[in-house]
């Protein structure tokens, strides 16, 4: 069986309110546009999730809303600023979803992207994983509980500025 993971960093956040907590920061207009563009790209490439796993931060919620995709939603406090190992543990609990979209934050998501890859895509943007960076992986596994480091074949990698 083949499983697909769409691993995405949240879109560009708004830093205009210095009193706002990191967890509550939303997206700026550039981030909102990027999320919409990535949603169009995902739909256009047939990368449609059955399940979305996300940090519960405002900027990840707004990124998900901007993608305008339909899937079961799970917003989890444990994915807020989560390290790679915690992200893997959450993914292993994805149940019977064939395609999962996971939304998170750097530095954990960049590390997770690298950890999962069977081979580096040879793209400098993959290393820094800028806002709204998205990697699509395929895993030859029967369940998410079998997925581990170095098992993901990268099908696609995109960043918003390449879509304009």
TrEMBL record:
Pfam families on file: His_Phos_1
CDD domains: HP_PGM_like (cd07067)
Binding-site residues, substrate: 9-16, 59
Domain of life according to the entry: Bacteria
SUPFAM superfamilies reported for this sequence: Phosphoglycerate mutase-like
Protein name, UniProt field: Phosphohistidine phosphatase SixA
Native source organism of the sequence: Thalassovita autumnalis
Organism placement in taxonomy: Bacteria, Pseudomonadati, Pseudomonadota, Alphaproteobacteria, Rhodobacterales
């Amino acid at each position: 069986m083949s499983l697909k993971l769409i691993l995405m960093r949240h879109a560009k956040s708004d830093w205009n309110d210095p009193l706002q907590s990191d967890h509550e920061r939303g997206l700026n207009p550039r981030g909102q546009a990027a999320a919409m563009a990535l949603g169009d790209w995902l739909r256009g490439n047939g990368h449609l999730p059955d399940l979305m796993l996300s940090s519960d931060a405002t900027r990840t919620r707004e990124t998900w809303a901007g993608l305008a995709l339909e899937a079961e939603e799970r917003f989890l406090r444990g994915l807020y600023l989560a390290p790679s190992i915690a992200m893997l543990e959450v993914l292993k609990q994805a149940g019977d979803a064939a395609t999962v979209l996971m939304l998170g934050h750097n530095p954990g998501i960049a590390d997770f992207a690298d950890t999962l890859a069977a081979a580096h895509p040879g793209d400098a943007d993959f290393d820094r994983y800028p806002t709204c960076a998205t990697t699509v992986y395929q895993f030859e596994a029967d369940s998410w509980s079998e997925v581990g480091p170095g098992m993901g074949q990268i099908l696609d990698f995109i960043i918003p500025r390449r879509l304009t």
